[in-house]
Amino acid sequence: MTTIYYGGFDPGSGEATLNLHPADGVEMASDTMTIPSIIADGRPRDLLKRGDTDATLAQVLRDGEYVLSVNGNDYFLGEAIREGRNETDALRDPNRYWSNHARFLLLALACILIPERSFELRLVTALPVSLYDKENRVKMKQALEGYYRCTFATAGQFSDREITVKVGYVAMEGQGILVHCGEAEGDQAVFDIGERTFDLVVADGQRLLTTKCAGEEIGVGLIVDDLKNFAKTRRRNLTTTKAHDLLFAYAHNEPLPTLGGVDHEELHEEIGNAIRRAGRTLTSFIAAHLTTDGEDVAASFDRVYLAGGGAYYFRTLIADLIGDDKVTVVEDAEVANAYGYADLAKQLEQRKADIWETRTYA
Predict the structure, then answer these.
(1) Structure letter (DSSP) for residue 13
(2) Strand pairing category for 65-70 and 146-154
(3) Cα–Cα–Cα angle for 91, 96, 99, nearest 5°?
(4) pLDDT tens digit sequence for 327-357
(5) Domain harbouring 32, CATH code
């Protein structure tokens, strides 16, 4: 019998995450995986040059490098993108959510986590609020659902896979936080701050108030861009990965990684300034959407949950705007959405018994 997994898939604007629950309840070695939302074309024969003439792909790959082969084409993910060509995160392209980009991220994450050669993945995923309508939800379902035969390679491992994907529901990005962390009652909001997306989700308990939800291309990427421009003024090249390392250290009060001799105090000050500059754009958007009839911003809300990678960097600014007593940074903020989508996937059969039956679309 085919092994069945319930999953929550967050395609992400910076990182993609998959959280899984086996239908048989057997504990997994690891149930959650996150990789950069970047895919590159690649040629495995180039990687084979690392080893002896009889070396296999599994032998030459390093930890964190992944090669997915589908329909005769090879794609590099994780650390392997450094050896690939035409790498892309497909940002600012709405098609990324209903194209090969999201599909291949999902297949790679599933292959990393799931040991079986053949399995069925019953999935809940999500779209940003700005793209959330019936047409786009159907397109995303159609893009991800299907039967796939592929090969997958990582360090010490090479396998053929047969994967059946079924999508039970396409949620609104941020809804996973409500499911996983929110209350059953009360006016509450989620601020999901990603790399390049900000999703504001408003709900009465677990019931979405869709007309009050909003989304914008705002996120941690604004800070990253600012820091890269600063580095250029010091004749330094700052990678996105290094910028995130700097931000993480700053937010967690850890020593900052060095940046080519740039003074530590100056770098620390510049990071704070970059966060505040991006924060002005973010808080202006929040104020415009959560202020009514002259009230204070978000005055009617009982609780506001911060999630996504930007939760740590903008928490203070948001708390100053709407009140510290209302703001909660959720546990595992970067992956909590995927947890909520997986929780929802497990519950769908209770709501609709035939939810996982094969469907056709008009």
Answers:
(1) S
(2) antiparallel
(3) 160
(4) 999 999 999 999 999 999 999 999 898 999 8
(5) 3.30.420.40
